Backbone:
C-alpha cells in the first residue's frame, strides 16, 4: 500500500482525503468521524476499530442523555462545568450558557469520578535592568515575575476516557 493509495473510512465507508486520515490501531477513520469523538478522547491511535465504533455509539446515546440534562449549578470562567444536581451528572463546555449543549458535551455521572485534584502551574520569568552600556543585565540577586495557572485534574472510571483537566483561570494569575 503506497503513500498516495486511496483510503476509505472503516467507520462510515467514505473516501478519505489526502490529509484527512486519522489512524487507528487496526484501521483508518475520516476526519468527519473523528470530530464526533468526545473531546476527552485522547488515545485514538491506540484504539481499535471496535472500540471507536462503540465510542461513537456512546456519543449518539449521549445526545439523548443531554435532552434530560438540566443544569442548576455552573462553575468556571472559560471552560464551564454545568452540574445537574438532581440527576448527579455534569458536563464540561467552552460554550456560553445559552448554547452549552451545541457541542454534544459528555454527560458524566458524578459516580464515575474517582479523584479530583488541584494542580498549580508556576511560571517564572527573570526580570532585568539596563546596564551602563544599555545592555540587559540581571539584577543581583536575580528578581523574578511569577504567574500561575490553576487546573482541576479529574480521574474517571469511564470506558472511553479516564481523565481530563479544566483550567480554572482564563489568563495568568500574577503574584
Residues:
Amino acid at each position: 500500500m503506497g503513500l498516495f493509495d486511496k483510503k476509505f473510512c472503516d467507520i462510515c465507508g467514505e473516501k478519505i482525503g489526502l490529509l484527512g486520515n486519522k489512524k487507528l490501531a487496526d484501521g483508518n477513520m475520516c476526519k468527519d468521524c473523528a470530530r464526533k469523538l468526545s473531546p476527552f478522547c485522547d488515545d485514538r491511535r491506540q484504539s481499535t476499530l471496535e472500540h471507536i465504533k462503540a465510542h461513537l455509539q456512546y456519543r449518539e446515546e449521549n445526545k439523548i442523555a443531554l435532552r434530560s440534562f438540566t443544569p442548576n449549578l455552573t462553575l468556571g470562567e472559560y471552560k464551564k462545568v454545568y452540574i445537574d444536581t438532581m440527576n448527579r451528572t455534569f458536563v464540561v463546555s467552552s460554550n456560553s450558557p445559552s448554547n452549552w449543549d451545541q457541542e454534544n458535551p459528555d454527560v458524566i455521572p458524578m459516580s464515575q469520578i474517582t479523584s479530583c485534584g488541584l494542580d498549580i502551574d508556576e511560571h517564572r520569568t527573570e526580570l532585568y535592568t539596563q546596564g551602563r552600556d544599555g545592555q540587559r543585565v540581571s539584577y543581583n540577586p536575580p528578581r523574578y515575575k511569577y504567574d500561575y495557572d490553576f487546573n482541576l485534574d479529574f480521574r474517571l472510571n469511564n470506558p472511553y476516557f479516564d481523565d481530563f483537566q479544566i483550567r480554572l483561570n482564563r489568563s495568568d494569575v500574577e503574584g
